[in-house]
Amino acid sequence: MLWATMTTAAAVAVVAMMPAAAAIAGGSSSQHSASSYPGKYPVVSTDKGKVRGEADSMVTSFKGIPFAAPPVGNLRWKAPVEAAKWRGVLDATKFGGSCTQGTGWDPGYDQPTLNEDCLYLNVYRPSNVKAKNLPVFVWNHGGGNTGGAGKDTNPDKFVTRSDVVYVTINYRLGAMGWLDTASLEQSNRNDGATGNFGLLDQQAALKWVQKNIRAFGGDKNNITLAGQSAGASNTCAQLASPGAKGIIDHAIMQSGGCSARTADAARASGLRFATQIGCADVATQVSCLRGKTPAEVLAAQTAVRQSGPVAGNRVLPSNPLDLLKAGTLTKVPVIVGAVSDEAQQSVFGSNDYLGNPITTQRLSELISTTYPAAAAQVAAAYPAASYWSPSVAWGDILSDQSACSTQTLRDRMANNTRTYSYEFAEKNGPPFTSIWRLNTDYPFGATHVNDLGYLGDYLGTALPFSTDQVALSNQMISYWSSFAEDGSPNVRYAPVWPKYTPQGKLLQFVAPSAQVVSHATLDAEHNCQLWDAVAPAA
C-alpha cells in the first residue's frame, strides 16, 4: 500500500491508549436508552463477556472487541495472551485503537499512531438475515506489515449483497510485530514467537472467531481468510503455520505472494535495529527494547525497516514458498490473483515522481542499473516515447514483471490445491482512494489496491463508480461470497469461473463483466517471455 511505504516518526504527537476496560458499562447508557426502536443495540455473549453492537437497516456491527490482552509492558514482543474477562457489557459501537505505525496519505493516519493497545477485531453481519451458521469472511488487511488496521475496510456493501459474517482484524506492525534478535529468541524460547508476533496475533484472532462466531450467526467450521498485499502474503504464511491448521477452510490472496525472511536475515536486521535504537548490549537488550517508547521504535524502524514473517522456527517451520513449490502447503481451496498495473501507484508515490519526475535519461539509467544484462531488450520493449511520461513507462516495466511473477504463483498454487485465479484489469475506474483525492490525471490503470473498492469501501471513501463499474463490483462480491460459502466462486447469471490449471484459463475483471482469458493471453499482454528470461520468479 502506498501510504505504508511513506511511514515516518517525524511527528511528536502522542495518541493516548484507552484500555478495553474503559469502554465497559453495566446496563444501558443514555445513548442506548434513547434508541427510538427496539434492537438498535443488540447484545451478544462471548467467552469473555457480553458486547453491545449497533444495528442499522442493513448491517449490524460489533466494533473494537478485544481478542487478546493489550501487548504492552512485559507483553511487548511476546506471543499474544488471552484477554481478561469483563463484567457488565462492553460497548462495541466504536473501533479499538490501531497498532503502532507511522503517517500515511489517508487522513486517518496523518499523524503517527503511538498506541500499543490494539488487538481488536470488528464483526459485521446482515441485519435482515435470521439464518444461523453463515459463512465467515475474515479480512487480513494490507499495508506492508507496517501500516493499516481492520477499521480501514468498511465491508457494508459486501455484507448487504451477500449472506456472510465479515470480520476485520488488527495485528502488530513493523518492529512491534516482526522484530527478531537472538536475545528476544531466548526470552521466547518456550513458544518460538520471536519475529512472528504479528502472525500470532492473526492466529489469535482466528481462534477467537472459531470460538465465538456462532453467537454472531457465523459458522465456525466455514472460515475464509482473505487478504490483500501484505495481508495476502500473511494469509499464505498462515497456510504454512502449524498454529493455523484446521481453522482456515478457504483462502483468498489478492496482490500478494508466498515468502518469508530467513531466521539469519531477520536476526541480522534485528541487530541493526537494536543498535539503531540504542539497545545493542545483548545482556540488557530485551529490557532496553521494552523501555523504549513507541515513538522511539518508529524512529528506529524508519532507519531499519522490520516487516514480515520469519521462517525456521516453531511458528513458521518452513518458508511458505518452499512448501508451495513442493506442493505441501495446506490444501484448502484458494483464489489467487492481482491487478494488471500493480506498480503505477508506487512509482507515482515515490520521490522520483512527486519531487523529481523521471526523465527519459533517468528511465534509461533505471533500466541499465536494474537489468544490466538485458537493458537493451527492456528498453526496446518499453520505449519512453510510447508513454504518457517516462514515469508511466517505468511503472509499466515494474507492473509487467510483477504480473509475470503472479503467473508463476498461480501455476504453483494450482499444482498444490484447488485454485481459481483472476486478473483485475479495470483501468478506467477511480484510482487508489488517497490518490483519487489529489485529482491527478496520472494514468494509473488498474493499480495496486484498486480492486479493494469493488469489494468494500476502503479508507473511509466510497469511490465514484460508473454504472458499469457498479455492475462489476456486484459481480465480484457475488464470486467472493460464493467462494466463502462452499469453496467454489461460481454463481448463476455470471460467467463461469473455471478451475485454474497450470497454463490454463482464468477470469479477467473489466467493467461491466468478467471474461475468461488464457494464461497465454496474459503472457503476451505483459511481455512474460521477456520477463521470464530477464527476471524469473523466485
Topology:
Elements: E1 24-25, H1 30-33, E2 43-45, E3 50-52, E4 54-55, E5 59-66, E6 89-91, E7 120-126, E8 134-140, E9 153-154, H2 156-160, E10 165-169, H3 174-178, H4 182-187, H5 197-212, E11 218-228, H6 230-240, E12 250-254, E13 261-262, H7 263-277, H8 285-290, H9 294-303, E14 310-311, H10 320-326, E15 334-339, H11 344-349, H12 351-354, H13 360-370, H14 375-381, H15 390-416, E16 419-424, H16 433-436, E17 457-458, H17 467-486, E18 505-510, E19 513-518, H18 519-525, H19 528-534
Parallel strand pairs: 3-6, 8-10, 8-11, 11-12, 12-15, 13-14, 15-16, 16-18
Antiparallel strand pairs: 1-6, 2-3, 4-5, 5-7, 7-10, 9-17, 18-19
Helix pairs in contact: 7-9, 13-14, 13-15, 15-18
Descriptive overview:
With 538 residues, this protein is of the alpha/beta class. The chain folds into two domains: 218 residues, Alpha/Beta hydrolase fold, catalytic domain (Rossmann fold, 3-Layer(aba) Sandwich); 197 residues, Alpha/Beta hydrolase fold, catalytic domain (Rossmann fold), CATH 3.40.50. Helices cover 33% and strands 16% of the residues. Strands 4-5-7-10-8-11-12-15-16-18-19 form an eleven-stranded mixed beta sheet, sandwiched between helices. Helix 13 packs parallel to helix 15. The protein is globular and about 70 Å long. 54% of the residues are buried. The N terminus is likely disordered.
